[in-house]
Amino acid sequence: MDELRAVNLTSVADAITRSARPNSVLWQEPDTLAFVARGRDYRSEFHVDPVDEVMYMIKGDMDLHYITSTGEHRVATIREGEIIHCPAGTPHSPRFSPDAFVLVLERKRRPDETDRFQWFCDACRTKLYETSRHVTDYRQDVVSRAYEEFYSTDENLTCGQCGKIAPRRWGVGLNAEGAKGAKA
């Protein structure tokens, strides 16, 4: 690297606002990854990340839903200008509005590491569905791909314990960019 350059996070957030993409990867190096993401209208999955994750709220606030090691569901509120560390293996669900932005810093995945995405019944907290992905490039928006898979069948939405059917809240009938097409 010949030149070090600073990144203006406000400019990055403004560019994401004008784009159909929900995030912008700032860098993907062998040992580090940084990206800025905007909130989505509805997010319900819990991400189980194989690496520690640091989140800094650039604009707006976030309710970070997470599950403790004893299975308790909790919420941590991260206000604009605050930062939080989420340890590897902690199921977490970052929920914030589309006009809010977060900077995420983490280690890039190794070949033997996978990310898991889990959905739980709103009524009884039974796991509805889980899918895994090996994330090699964050520009591929793996979260949207996981949602497409979850919403692909009614069976995925139906709780085997209590029978409640999860609502199709996130981009029903729309793809990740908001265009008519595949379910997101």
Keywords for this entry:
11 strands; 184 residues
**Helix share, percent:** 10-25%
Our Rg estimate from Cα atoms comes to 16 Å
**SS content category:** mainly beta
Report the uncertain regions.
172-184
Major β-sheet annotation: 5 strands, antiparallel
Could you tell me the number of beta strands?
Answer: 11
Q: What value does the average pLDDT take?
A: 88
Strand order of the largest sheet: 1-2-9-4-7
How do the helices and strands follow one another from N- to C-terminus? HEEEEEEEEEEEHH
Q: How many angstroms does the end-to-end distance come to?
A: 38 Å
Q: Note the beta-strand portion.
A: 25-35%
Please provide a written account of the structure.
By secondary structure, this protein is mostly beta strands. Helices cover 12% and strands 33% of the residues. It has 3 helices and 11 strands, in the order αβββββββββββαα. The protein has helices at 9-18, 142-150, 154-157; strands spanning 23-28, 33-38, 46-48, 53-59, 62-67, 73-78, 83-86, 92-95, 101-106, 115-120, 127-133. The protein has a 5-stranded antiparallel β-sheet with strand order 1-2-9-4-7. It is globular, with a radius of gyration of 16 Å. It starts with 8 loop residues before the first helix and ends in a 27-residue tail after the last helix. Mean pLDDT is 88; it is low at 172-184.
